[in-house]
Amino acid sequence: MQVWQRFGLGIGRNEQQHLVVGGCDALDLVARYGTPLYVYDEEGVRGRCRRWRESLARHWPQGEVIYAGKAFLPMAMAALAYQEGLGLDVSSGGELWTALQAGVPPSRLYFQGNGKSWDELELALEAGVGRIVVDNADELGRLHLLGARMGHKVHVLLRVTPGVDAGAHDHISTGKFVSKFGFVPGPDLETAVARARQSPHLVLRGLACHVGSQILDLEPFGQAARAIVEVAAQFSWPADWELDLGGGLGVVYTEADQPPAIEDVVKTITTTLREGCGERGVPLPQLILEPGRSVVAESAVALYTVNAVKEVPGRKYAVVDGGIHDNPRPALYGAEYAAALAGRLGDAVEGRYWVVGKNCESSDVLAKEVPLPSPRPGEVLALFTCGAYQYAMASNYNRIVRPAVVFAAGGQADLVVARETYRDLLRQDVLPERLCLSSVAASASS
Questions:
Q1: Which residue from 44, 78, 375, 401 puts its CA 20 to 30 A from 69's CA?
Q2: What is the pLDDT of residue 162?
C-alpha cells in the first residue's frame, strides 16, 4: 500500500489514475490555480478536529481541545477549527490577529510563546484573550505592569518544562530541561507561582507543558502527564484549576511511520492523569489538549510542476518549481516525504529520484530516493502529508513568491490563500531617492 492510500476517502485516485483530493482532480486544480499549490481535503481536517474533540469528551468531559495554529493558520483554518468546536492556540501577534480577523472569539484563544513582546501582550489584553501561557519571569513581570496600567485581570497559565525526552529530533523536542521553553521545576517556578498569586492584576489558572512534536509512541504522553502531576502536587489548587498538556502526536510521512490513534493518545493521557492526581491528592483539572500537526498534516498535498529531469553519476533528479522556500522542513531537520506523479498513479515504478527545488542551495531537497515512474518535464508531482509546518514556514527566499492554498470538499475547491505576485514581493520595499537609478543617471549626465 502506498502512503497516499492511508489517508482515507478524501485522498485517492479516479478512473484516469489521477490523484483526487476532496473530490477534485489534482490536474484540474493545477490547470485552474497553477503550481506550486497546496490542496487541503477539508473534510479530512474537519474529521480530525471532531475525533480529538469527541475523544476528549468521552475520556475527560471537563476539558477543551485547542488547535495549535503554528502548524497552519490562514483565516480559513482559524474559522474552520472554531466551527468544529475547537479553541485556538496562537504563538505570535500575527497569529493572534489572524484568528481575531477570522471571527474567533478572543475568549477561546490561548496565547503561547517564549518571546512575547510588549506590543503583542498589549494586543492580547486589549482583545481580551482567554489565557496567556507565561514562559518566563520577565513576561510575568510585563503582564503585571500591563494589567495595572490597562486595568485588566490577566488570566495566566505557567509553562513548565517537565524534563521529558519525547524521542523526536532535537529541533522539535521541547520537554527537556535544556529547552528554551518554560520554567524548570524548582525555585524559579516556585517564585513565579508566588508572584502570580500575589499580584492583584494576575489570576493564576494553572500550568502548561509540551514535550515535543511528531511523537510516534504513547509513552511520552504518559510521561508528560506523570511529570506535570508531580510538579502540580507541590502547590495547592482550586477545584477548577487548568492543565494544558500540549499536543505533539505524529503523523504518517512515510511507510515507516506508525503513529498511535488519537483515541489511544487521549486515553493514555487521561488515565495517567487520573491515576496521578488520585495518588498525589491533586484535584482533577480542566484538561486542555492542543493538537496541530495531527489535525492538518495528512489532509494536505503539495502539487508541483516538474521543470527538469536529469541524471548524474549515482543519482537521478526531478527538479520541481517549489523547494526550500515553501517547505524548509527537510533542510531544517531531515523531514522525509512520499511522492507520486499526480497524473500517473497507476504506472509502474521505473526508478528512484531525488525531488529537488529551484532554490540556490544544495540543501534544497524535498524528498530523497522516492520510487516513481520516469517523470517528464511538465508533469505534476505530488508530495503527501504537507498540511503542517510547510506553508506556515514558507518564505520568499531567492525572491520566489509563496504558493496558493485551496480547500477542497465534495468536488468543489475554494481558494483560501491567493498566490503571491511579483508586485507583492515589492510591496514593503522602499527605494530611497538617492538610490533611484533614474535619478543617479540624470545626475551623472548633468
A1: 401
A2: 81
* Residue 249, in any domain of the structure: yes
Q: How far apart are CA 415 and CA 280, in angstroms?
A: 51
pLDDT number for residue 173: 42
Cis status, amide bond into 36, omega within 30 of 0: yes
Confidence class for position 7, pLDDT limits 50, 70, 90: low
Q: Identify the sign of the CA torsion 81, 37, 249, 210.
A: negative
Q: What is the pLDDT of residue 182?
A: 85
| 281, 403: one domain | no
Look at the block and give the residue holding cell 468536488: 411
Give the least confident one: 57-71, 142-156, 208-222, 429-443. 429-443
DSSP annotation of 313: T
pLDDT of 172? 39
Distance in angstroms between the alpha carbons of the first and the last residue of the chain: 73
- pLDDT score at 211: 84
Q: Measure the CA–CA gap between 416 and 370, rounded to whole angstroms.
A: 30
pLDDT band of residue 62 (cuts 50, 70, 90) is very high
Average of pLDDT values for 305-316?
Answer: 96
Q: How many residues does the chain have?
A: 446
**Distance from C-alpha of 85 to C-alpha of 55, rounded to nearest angstrom:** 13
Tell whether pTM > 0.90: yes
User: If we measure between CA atoms, which residue out of 173, 175, 323 comes closest to residue 250?
Assistant: 173
Q: What is the DSSP string of 13-72?
A: E-TTS-EEETTEEHHHHHHHH-SSEEEEEHHHHHHHHHHHHHHHHHH-SSEEEEEEGGG-
> Do residue 19 and residue 156 come from a single domain?
no
The Cα–Cα gap between 186 and 268 comes to 27
Sequential DSSP letters for 392-407: GG---GGGPPPPEEEE
Total domains, the chain: 2
For residue 395, the model assigns a pLDDT of: 96
Residue 82 grid cell: 472554531
Phi and psi angles of residue 41, each rounded to the nearest 5 degrees, phi first: -80, 100
- Spatial distance between the Cα atoms of 406 and 33, rounded to a whole number of angstroms: 9
Per-residue pLDDT for 175 more than 50? no
Q: Give the span between the Cα atoms of 31 and 26, in whole angstroms.
A: 9
Closest to 131 measured CA to CA, from 25, 204, 193, 71? 204
Could you tell me the CATH number of the domain that includes residue 71? 3.20.20.10
- Rounded mean pLDDT of the chain? 93
Q: Stretch 341-360: mean pLDDT, rounded? A: 96
Give the residue from 106, 66, 63, 58 showing the smallest Cα distance to 85: 66
- Residues spanned by the domain of 11: 3-41+297-422
